[in-house]
Amino acid sequence: MVQDLLYFLVTMAVFLLAYAIASHSILYPDAPVTWETARQIIRKPYLHLYGELFLDETEDLKDCTNDASLWKNGTSERCPSETGRIVGPIMMAIYLLFSNILMLNLLIAMFSYTFNKIHERSEKIWCFQRYIMVKDYVQRPVLCPPVNVFWHIYQLFRCCLHKRTKHELSDDPFHSLNGVMQEALSRYLKRRDHLTKNAVNEEGFRNQALKGIEALNKKVDGLETKADREDEFRRHVLDQLKEMKESINNLHRKMADSRHKADEKTEP
């Protein structure tokens, strides 16, 4: 949580300094660069976080002056600019919205996430630390320093005279526990390798499927283009047939007219 708090403080400092410099430069333009000015720049935005808004210094300030010689000597307060009286409250409202509402809720969310993550692993961490502590106490000599030298000599003679067999090693609870841990680690590594291979195979299958889909899309586009061409050719043929039909009808009319005229001439 300390790390989350540091991240929050850095982000908050960026917002605070940005608002502090911008608001002070608008309220009091051409202010001299002094330690007092720097203190005033940081003081007001920081106290804004706790509810102190200093509205009487910007809106209801009556005993103020714009004479540089007076406010530099500390005789009277400097009057804020007209632009600052209008823009200052708007900037302060936006700053308080981000700092008191958004940033505070962000800090609470970060703390909640960290707490839940630690709480999920707390039992496992406690068991592992308890195992380390018990193992440490079991492996320590019975005698305290400097008498423990005799204990080490005793252990050396014991190892030389009575070699431990595999059966004795298997009776050691910590040895068996180390074996279980090694087996669990090997299983984890095998499972990770298996998942990695599956991921690679799935990626290859996905790439092949995408290539197949692209090929099908190209074929469909080709068929659509061919169908469009066939439709255009069919429309062209139909138009020509209509023209031929109209031409034949015109010929029939002309022939009928010529016959009718010939019949009229042959009549007495």
UniProtKB/TrEMBL annotation:
Ribosomal protein listed as a keyword: no
The keyword Membrane is annotated on this UniProt entry: yes
Protein name in UniProt: Ion transport domain-containing protein
Family annotation (Pfam families): Ion_trans (PF00520)
Domain Ion transport as annotated: residue spans: 1-122
TM spans (from-to): 90-115
Membrane topology: Multi-pass membrane protein
Main location (coarse class): membrane
Entry coiled-coil feature ranges: 206-261
Localization: Membrane
CC annotations in GO: plasma membrane
Database matches in PANTHER family: TRANSIENT RECEPTOR POTENTIAL CATION CHANNEL SUBFAMILY M MEMBER-LIKE 2, TRANSIENT RECEPTOR POTENTIAL CATION CHANNEL, SUBFAMILY M, MEMBER 6
Keywords: Coiled coil, Membrane, Transmembrane, Transmembrane helix
